[in-house]
Amino acid sequence: MDYVSKTVKIQRPRQQVYDFFADFRELSHLVPPNQVSDLETTEATCSFSVKPVGKVRLQIAYREPVKLIKYSSQEGDPLEFNLWVQLLEATPYETRLRITLRANFNTMIRALLGRKLQKSVDEAALQIAAAFNAQTPLA
């Protein structure tokens, strides 16, 4: 099932936003240490532990420069999903961002988490836009 965020505005050039999302080492600064442990990052991979799920491993599965980054869970992980960050240039200094989460969960898990996942995807997009728009360094 797909969970698609609202489209948000970021007052930064699309290249700057893309560069941030195209490298897990940049994203690691956003991970709340009280919610995850054992964080390890490279440019294209990330792994961490989260209770009660366990070890989660992500990889950048596809990049379309300045337009799209697709992340995926790695084979054998407890949760199977893909996450897309789509970027559209509105003006040279304004980028539109949308997040899509495709989760392959069984019916029971989907029923329990469906609304929470949609809310989380929407909140993530809003928080990302707020952080970029606040002109504070994200990394």
Short summary:
This protein has 139 residues and is α+β, with helices and mostly antiparallel strands. The protein has helices at 14-21, 24-27, 107-133; strands at residues 2-4, 8-10, 37-41, 45-50, 54-64, 68-73, 81-91, 94-103.
Mean pLDDT over the residues: 87
CA gyration radius, whole angstroms: 15 Å
- How far apart are the first and last residues' alpha carbons, in Å? 32 Å
Structural class: alpha+beta
H/E order of the elements? EEHHEEEEEEH
Low-confidence stretches: none
Give the oligomeric state: single chain
Instruction: Report the helical percentage.
Output: 25-40%
Strand content: 35-45%
Described by strand count, sense and barrel closure, the largest sheet is: 8 strands, antiparallel
User: How many individual β-strands?
Assistant: 8
What sort of overall outline do the alpha carbons produce when their principal axes are compared?
globular
- Please count the helical segments: 3
